[in-house]
Amino acid sequence: MTFHLLNIAIVVVLSLIGIGLYGLMIARNLIKVVVGLQIATKGAILAFVLAGRLASQVDVGQSLALTVIVADTIVAVVALALAVQVRQKFGTLNIEALKTLRR
Amino acid sequence: MEAKTALTLLLALPLIASPVIYILGRVEYRFLYRRIVAARWLCLLVLGVTWFPLLQLRVPVLEEGAVLWPIGRIVLQLDGLGFFLAVTVLGLATLVTIFSFQYVKGEPDEEKYYALLLAMTASMIGLGCTRDLFNLWVWFEAMAITSYLLVAFHHEQKSSLEAAVKYLVQSAVGSLLVLLGIALVFMLTSTLDLESIRPLMANSGAVGLAAGGLVIVGFGVKTAMVPMHTWLPDAHSQAPSGISAMLSGVVIECGLVAMLRALGGLAEASLAWGALLLFFAALNMLVGNLMALRQTEVKRMLAYSSVAQVGYMLFGFGVAISYGVSDGAAGGFFHLFNHAMMKGLAFLAAGALLYALHLSQGRHQPLVLDDLNGAARRYPITAFALSVALLGLGGLPPLAGFMSKWQIFVSGAEVRSTPLLWLVIFAGLNSVLSLGYYAPLVNRLYRREPSSVVLQGRPIAILMGVPLLLMSLGSVAVGVWPKLLSWVTYPAALALLRSFGFH
What's the rounded Cα separation, in Å, for the pair A73 and B177? Predict the structure, then answer.
């Protein structure tokens, strides 16, 4: 039974990261970009819990996951605050508008 | 003072002071409706006081190798490398603070600037003194978050917002990849202590390679290794000039140090890390220089030149890691320090000119090369400082940049391997190529007729000129007496090689 659970967890980790990064690449809306980033980070958080389980140090893995959640929340807050500013200054959330700086 | 107390103070002082300064600044503004002491002078005071514990730590670190401070499972360790990084970061932060007095005066959130600058400085010092892989990421992320906020400091400007969004998204993906790498290592070794990880990773096979690759790509985003460098020119050119100096001078180098620390733990998973760094070194030098050649904005050109300069550091560290040559690592650290000093000087001097020519007259527009025509007539000191910085970065002999590049090239030649010799020649030719954009700018400053922008420029405050003068003096002094810095670069090099398992 545990064997199956671990397999499921690995699949979930990989698919969360894959879906998140894919969404990040195709999204044209800044909020969706942030959502994609969040989904991928959730995969990394689950990866820590899973790594703790496989390393038979469940407590350490979970405390690392909690730390990542805190840091991740701050990044999300900053990103959304920037999105608010972008909406106010550019009048749109489309990231195509964010291409004014030259190479 | 006991060593452990000094280490506590070194980390705690700026971290605790950062929110305090913000609150005091707000309170002062609330009751007096202007900003007199709170943010700027307190920030300078805290940075000044932080030097004392750092200097107290000099003897224990340099003589005994490292100061250890275990907190539960996590071990904080200040070794030669951490000490070197702390000296560089604190030095640049102090000068940037003095420079910013005039530059951000009158901005609506001045106290936020100083509070974040202090927090960023603290997290960079912390990044240097940890031995725990996950703790390394925490400091790294703290540094990254403060730097996002500082890049977006002029959030009423569209260009700053655009730069900050690009920087945040790319950097967040980078730190996500680092996290996955750390999770893989933790899964395999059940520990996060870098010293214990190294022997356990010896036969890790594909998982070890994957972890190393994730760490290199993830930290590589912050280090601006070439395919991952696209955020850098935007962020560095749009940030306030003092922050550009910090970003270029120490933040990208902190990404490099974090990568080296993490790779030290994975040293036995593969022998190819050093060769990989050498590959990125060549790529960075070439792409950075070629892109810098075609820029018309001064700060953007300097930003691309940082991409090229990171290449030289990667070269030194790559040689050191591949062949265990301590001179290579010492040269890399020497160049890291010189780059912090010279690129910091270049950005501050360009920032002073930007302030005098555009910002102080209420125009938020970039400083282009044509604006600087004949600037030496009106701003002799600033133009001299900028020239010293540019020629030093280009590697002209009596200046600091020449000495560190020379040391890196010599260490490369010492190894006596033919491909490496070609790489040394390639790097030397790149140095010549870089003069192709540094020298014309110096020519503009001195030999062209003053442009209309220069003729209408405001004078530069004396306080703004002080850090410029100090740093130009430093660049010349280090160039003439390169041994001045050996006392910090060699312990740092030894600490790096020790963390990779060389003895």
Answer: 17
Q: pLDDT-derived band of residue B301, with 50, 70 and 90 as boundaries?
A: very high
Q: pLDDT digits over B195-220, tens only?
A: 899 989 888 888 999 999 999 999 99
Average pLDDT over residues B9-34: 90
What are the chain A neighbours of B192 within 8 Å (beta carbons)?
A: 60
Domain with A92, as residue range(s), is: 2-97
- Of A10, A28, A57, A75, which to mutate for an interface test with B (greatest number of B Cβ within 10 Å)? A75
Distance, CA of B381 to chain centre: 25
Indicate the SS3 state at residue B450: coil
B448 touches chain A (CB under 8 A): no
Using CA atoms, how far apart are residues A34 and A81, in angstroms rounded to an integer? 11
The CATH number that applies at residue A25 is: 1.10.287.3510
Cβ contacts (< 8 Å) between A56 and chain B: which residues? 190
Does any domain span residue A102?
Answer: no
ipTM of the assembly? 0.95
Shortest CB distance from B180 goes to which of A44, A55, A101?
A44
**Using the beta-carbon criterion (under 8 Å), do B183 and A79 form an inter-chain contact?**
no
Distance CA B283, CA B304 (A): 13
Rounded CA-CA distance B142/B124 in Å is 9
Give me the percent of chain B exceeding a pLDDT of 90: 67
Assigned domain for A103 exists: no
Q: Tens of pLDDT along B481-490?
A: 988 888 999 9
User: Per the domain annotation, does A11 fall within a domain?
Assistant: yes
- B148–A71: do the CB atoms touch at under 8 Å? no
> Inter-axis angle of helices B462-480 and B80-103, to 10 degrees?
150
Residue in B163, B168, B180 nearest the CB of A79: B168
In the chain, the amino acid numbered B340 is A
The per-residue pLDDT of chain A, averaged, comes to 91
**Residue B184 pLDDT more than 60?**
yes
The encoded tokens of residue B345 equal 């000087």
Q: Which residue has the tokens 């938020």?
A: B364
Give the one of B73, B152, B186 whose C-beta lies nearest to A51's C-beta: B186
Amino acid B203: pLDDT: 83
Structure tokens at B483: 């041994």
CA atoms within 13 A on the CB side of A53: 14
Domain-wise residue ranges, chain B? 271-503
How far apart CA B158 and CA B156 sit, in angstroms, is 6
Instruction: Establish if A26 touches chain B: CB-CB under 8 angstroms.
Output: no
Q: Which helix (H) or strand (E) holds B74?
A: strand B74-79
Rounded to an integer, the average pLDDT of B137-155 is 94
B416 three-state secondary structure: coil
For residue range A45-88, list pLDDT tens digits in order.
999 999 999 988 899 999 999 999 999 999 999 999 999 999 99
Question: Which of B145, B180, B184 comes nearest A78 by C-beta?
Answer: B145
Smallest CA–CA separation between B200 and chain A, in Å? 13
